[in-house]
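Quick one: structure for this chain?
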Amino acid sequence: MGAVYFSLGKYKEAITRFDKALELDQDNTLATISKGITLRKLNDYDSALIYILKHYTVNPNDPTSLYYLGSTLHHLGNNEEALAFIDKSITINPNDANTWNLKGIVLYSLGKYSEALQCADKSITINPNDTDTWNLMGNIFLKLNEDNLAQRSFARAKSTQSEPQEPSYTPPSITSQSEPQEPSYTPPSITSAKTRVKLDDIGTKLIFNAWNSQDTYGT
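Got it. Here's what it folds into:
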């Protein structure tokens, strides 16, 4: 199964399985987004964007698709375009700390530090134990010449490292006659120290759990 290969870090093998699923059903949205996430693991962000966009065209109001589009475009350096998708995701799901954090990262990359700080503050209000957002705040305060506040933010980030907490949410169900509703999953956390996307185990949670509940293409 593609999900098993993915969970083992065998991303090329996973893509082969997802391709097989897409050969059987080119409209399989779960296989589409799974392949996009797996391509990100292989640092092929240009190809990943194609599959995430395909998923988005079927599910334009899915905050998860919007989040991945924003984070992938940010990684590709298209920050202005990324903001449009991130803002739409926030409009649909305003209480997701990770999305506010991502917006803060993008604004930081654009040099809009005051606006980035507002987003980081919103993220921390929702999830006060998020290490990455505290690091982001620290970096923003450094840019704003607020060294004391920066050090306090970094200290808070260090104190929360042993208790990582990733907020999860349930995206809208994917409408397909051949697919049941997808289970809820956690979007990727963001590392803000260097303002880039952190891709640790997000795909494992999404892909493995979703495909495990829906064995579409067999072993």
